[in-house]
Amino acid sequence: MLRFQHSEYLYALFLLILIVLVYVSVLVWKRKAVKKIGDKSLVEQLFTGYSIRFRNFKFWLLFSAFAFMVLGAANLQMGDKMEKITRKGVDVMIALDMSNSMRAADVQPSRLARAKQLVNRLLDEMTNDRVGLVVFAGNAYLQMPLTVDYSAARMYLQSANPGMLPTQGTAIDKAIELCQQSFNQKERKHKAIILISDGEDWDNNAIAATKKAHDDGIVINTVSVGTEQGAPIMMPDGDYLKDDKGSVVITKMNDKLLQGIAATGNGLFQHLDNTNETAGNLIRALDTMQKKEFGENIFTDYSSYFQYFLGIGLILLLLEFIIPETKRKKLSLKPVKR
């Protein structure tokens, strides 16, 4: 199994696009400057020792060196040793609302960002529980099945956004049903759902889905995000979401629905004000549940290969430093007159 230990560093690779754009812009600027000075052929004769080929080659050396340095910092690892680990915990499915209303910024930096902060804090506190992730809007999708690989959970969580879901809306009932299907159907204990949403649901089927899941032995906890005053929804294009009449849509939190779901599911309801406090209360609620033993094959030992990427990057930097931008002058041997 291959993985990057610090996958967040890979975002620095996007800087390569900026580097290329800057380099091309400089080339265009230089060409325009040459034209302003005078005749292009005459001006180029002033730089007879200058090599455009060497200059471009040195740039691509720097470009490649930066890429290898970033890969080295991310630290590519390969799993060497797999062991079966026995744990005692509960199975927890996290259902995260990905509807457009979660883009609202009535809580800073946004409802979705605060919800992700909560999930990351939960993962920090979990030790032996298996966790899975369902994202939902107009439909529900299994983002990650139950696992104890919390680093993988963080990776899936980080990549999740409303734009990845083809159908908008807030189908809480479908999220609960999918979470229910993701558990072991032969068990009636050790199962919990943490539903994080602003509560805007227009299907009115959420309570019925909750009752069905609770009858199957699932405890359902809910967390509401947002404010009663609400806020407009800023879309990725920089404009506010509007309805069919052209009016700006104001999305408001619906605590009553989420309170009803928690009451029906014999779980805990909370409003997300303080991330640490909310996460702590949820962890304590999970700790009160009856635990089960389960074994899972996971990699316990990894070999790191960052040194190879850093080594190649340093070699490329050294080559860039050594290679000149000027052409070597050819030595002409003239016969010596006696």
Structure description:
With 338 residues, this protein is an alpha/beta fold. The chain folds into 2 domains: 9-76 and 305-322, no CATH class; 84-296, von Willebrand factor, type A domain (Rossmann fold). 41% of the residues lie in helices and 22% in strands. The strands form 3 sheets. The chain has a 6-stranded mixed sheet with strand order 5-4-3-6-7-10, sandwiched between helices. Strands 1-2-11 form a 3-stranded antiparallel sheet. The longest helix is centred in the N-terminal third of the chain and has 23 residues, at 15-37. It is flat. 29% of the residues are buried. The model has no long low-confidence stretch (mean pLDDT 85).
Count of domains: 2
Task: Order the strands across the largest sheet as they lie in space.
Answer: 5-4-3-6-7-10
The count of strands amounts to: 11
> What is the helix/strand order?
EHHHEEHEEHHEHEEEHEHEH
What is the averaged pLDDT score?
A: 85
Biggest sheet features: 6 strands, mixed
Give me the secondary-structure category: alpha/beta
Q: What is the radius of gyration computed over CA atoms, rounded to a whole number of angstroms?
A: 29 Å
Query: Which topology of the largest domain does CATH recognise?
Result: Rossmann fold
